[in-house]
Amino acid sequence: MVISMIGAIDIGGTKTITGLADQNGQILEQIKFESCTENWETHFERCAESLSKLCKRHQTETSGLKGIGISLPAMTDSEKGILVYAPFSGWRDIPVAEWFARRLNQPAVYVENDVNACALGELKFGHGRTYKDFLWITVSTGIGGAVVADARLITGWHHLAGEFGHLKVERVHPRRCPCGQEGCLEAHASGTAIGKAFQEYLLSNPEAEQILKAHPYPVDAYGCRMLAVKGDKGAMEIYRQAGRYLGIAIAQAVNLLNPQAVIFGGGVSASLDLLEPEIRRVLEKEAVHQAGRAVFLYTALGYEAALAGAAALVP
What we know:
By secondary structure, this protein is an alpha/beta fold.
């Protein structure tokens, strides 16, 4: 019996992954390379060549795939298959589905915003088999979100539902967000924000800098995590503050949506053990009691959830 394979492309701001998946969302093989933001056609061509190479290794053609799903770090119109706007690159109004369908001789091409794709992947292949109402949050370089209600992705009028990273969490000392506004969750609790806070802490604390020299961790959110795990009070406080901001935003979300679960993805979410105590403390204070009991889970799809999410786009 021949099992239909699915083509999956996860285009990220810094890296891109192409892969082949089976119908259960298992990635059979993948190729990873840097994203080229200067010219979208040049990058799409490399994606097409990479996926074609994988197909040949598995003795098939792109035309023989069940379909191709593409995850994009951008606002998208999934119904029309168009990338509307990608802040990381400045790309606008690109007919992604049409381009790949023509280039790869495969009419079944589906595109979606990366976080929405992650949520759909979770729904189809992960915790969504247990929870049908959940909030999916990615905490990485930035912060994104997606809403699944009654086993259905909620996209909103302009496909902007779930812009969790731009809930306002700080009014007194707001930091500027890449979106141009101030006080957004992304500006205060993303990996980038944690890294900046860690840099400021090291500049004001020579003792912590000496510890870092003894343990050559990077000066970013990961390095901050490693010092926090070792009991450094300053690093622990940075994660406590990030947890507080996440708690404020999650309280707003659960009060509005009443999800069964909040599912976390992204590199910083691997530090959920450091973040959750403060998130829970804030929820106890600011969320409606029953709504605040949502289960917290790390994604079942692993670090490369967006690739599985891309595969999930193919019906």
